[in-house]
Amino acid sequence: MMHLAFLLLIICTDGSSSQKVCSNQDVVEHLNLTGDNSVFRMTRPVLDHKRPTAVQLDILLLALLAVIEKTQTFVPFVWVIMKWHNERISWDPAQFCGITHISIPKEMLWKPDLCILEMTQEDESPQNPYMFVSHDGTVSSEEEMKVVSTCEMDVHKFPFDTQRCNISIGSAVHCVDEIRVFPFSNSSRATQFSREVIMTQGEWEFLQLTIRSQNFTTDDRLWEFLIYTFTVKRRPLLHVTNFLLPILFFLVLDLASFFIQDRRGEKLGFKVTILLAISVLLLILNDILPSMSNRTPLIATYCIVTFALMLLSLLETILVTYFMEKDKQNTFITDEKRQTCKASDEEKPRESLPMGHQVHSSVQGREGDALLLILEQLKEVQNSVDLHLVWRQEGGKFGLLAARIDRSFFIFYITTVSLFLTLIFIAWTT
Description:
Elements: H1 2-18, H2 24-31, H3 39-42, E1 53-68, E2 73-85, E3 101-105, E4 114-116, E5 130-134, E6 138-146, E7 149-150, E8 162-171, E9 179-183, H4 187-197, E10 204-218, E11 221-234, H5 237-256, H6 266-288, H7 298-351, H8 353-362, H9 366-394, H10 397-429
Parallel strand pairs: 1-9
Antiparallel strand pairs: 1-2, 2-6, 2-7, 3-5, 4-8, 5-6, 8-11, 10-11
Helix pairs in contact: 5-6, 5-7, 6-7, 7-9, 7-10
């Protein structure tokens, strides 16, 4: 009986030990992680101060919030992942029911003081209050950040431009002897992950994310930074339909205005209206493009040359209108001369009435009437020829000059517009 009771006691004891219950709090108490324990928070977590802390970093693009050309501001929403090794923290998972990692508040452990050089505003997005600690001392922290940073933009090919904006991240206090920063993923892997997790892009299309390391030397100390370069491409459809095509349509209308018969200045008023419409679009362009740029944007060249061609067309119309008005004045003078000549012709038959009377007396009947009629018609033909020669010499030369100028300028206008549009298209697409 005593042996049986002893065996039952052993079985019960083994059963209770196999059903041991553990919690994360047991690990925290084992590591002596408390809110007032400053040993884990004040200094780098290394046992030998000569050994640098290696920080693995990964930045993934979650959303493109804004790319503002006017202020040259790049606003991405990124996911920042950091991993480093804490040499003061470790435990055996077998002693704590297989627990391999725990989550603790970020205030309880030291974390790298990484900062972004291009950042211009403090991040106001909600922060993740916890970090993960593994049994081997690996600490990982994840943050979602709204980064408002500066970016040197090249708007030369706007709206077919591609921008490259950098995020340089590194330690603000520790040099390369104390903290080494390494990328967790290479460029192709970071690009692939960003395309998988990206939520919105808006006007811009994300192309790729490249990672490179760069060192800076200040005060005889070497600092290491990781530079993440985001390459984004603008979606130009909105600007093409709202800006480029209307200007092209106005240019086509200006070309079509050469076929308008100029009466009472309708052609001149039409061209002035088109010129004013282009001026309004130039004001809109001034609000879009930044005031400081290394090179003149192609869209500005496109608008200025188009405006100059229309202005030249307007001046040509004014010149042609002037010559046509001058021709009308000379035609009016010629009409006065014609009336004067006609009046003199009406007086001549009266002076030559005796001759006609003699002819009428000598020729009898119908033959005499026919001869008088032929004589009067010959005199009218001679007067018409004389008046036409006077009009060709005095009244028609300005009209002929206006027609030649209009025809020559139309050929020059079509040639210049075709050549300019071809060159600007090649510059935009190459």
